[in-house]
Design brief:
single chain, 182 residues, alpha+beta, Alpha-Beta Plaits, SH3 type barrels, 4 helices, elongated
Length: 182
């Protein structure tokens, strides 16, 4: 073990990231190990959800690395024992006796991934509510409709098309719709 502040990835049961982070934070506090931990991160991206029915845009989070916590700590026997004692933690990334610390490049890439926000996705897709689009793939190919919802989290649009004489909402991927030139 070393006494140098480094980044480590901890493998945990997917879906328990927030619960494990809370338990770890509580155990750090109760075992008086605050000086050994610098940061605990659940890697997530933020996406803006746009819906014609809701005047306010909602933000959604998407996990970049499901099943992992990223921690910055001084790894010693006490820290090692504390982390291994928490339920739902599988272990450190690396071999069981010598965890591998993350490189600066790994951390830089992780922060880049986390800082990609909905604005990047919006700029690349540039769909707006109420805009006319044409479906270019699938069973509704060549139908035109109006954008009712934009889901940047799933990269989908809800488009209202007229099909068999009825206004019908359909969900399509961003790449399956083209803007109509006005």
């Amino acid at each position: 073990m070393n006494n140098i502040l480094k980044w480590y990835a901890i493998n945990i049961y997917s879906g328990y990231e927030l619960q494990v982070k809370r338990v770890l934070t509580d155990k750090i506090r109760t075992n008086n190990l605050k000086n050994y931990f610098h940061d605990i991160i659940i890697p997530v991206e933020t996406f803006k959800n746009t819906n014609e029915d809701e005047p306010i845009h909602t933000l959604r989070l998407k996990k970049c690395l499901p099943g992992y916590l990223i921690i910055k700590c001084y790894l010693n026997e006490d820290v090692w024992s504390l982390i291994k004692s928490i339920p739902k933690i599988i272990g450190f990334v690396g071999n069981s006796k010598h965890p591998v610390s993350l490189t600066k490049k790994d951390i830089k890439n992780l922060y880049k991934m986390m800082n990609r926000s909905s604005s990047i996705k919006e700029d690349t897709n540039q769909f707006t509510l109420g805009e006319s689009v044409q479906i270019n793939h699938g069973p509704f190919e060549n139908l035109t409709g109006t954008v009712k919802k934009i889901d940047y989290y799933r990269n989908k649009l809800q488009v209202i098309v007229t099909f068999l004489g009825r206004r019908t909402p359909i969900d399509v991927d961003f790449e399956c719709a083209n803007k109509l030139k006005t």
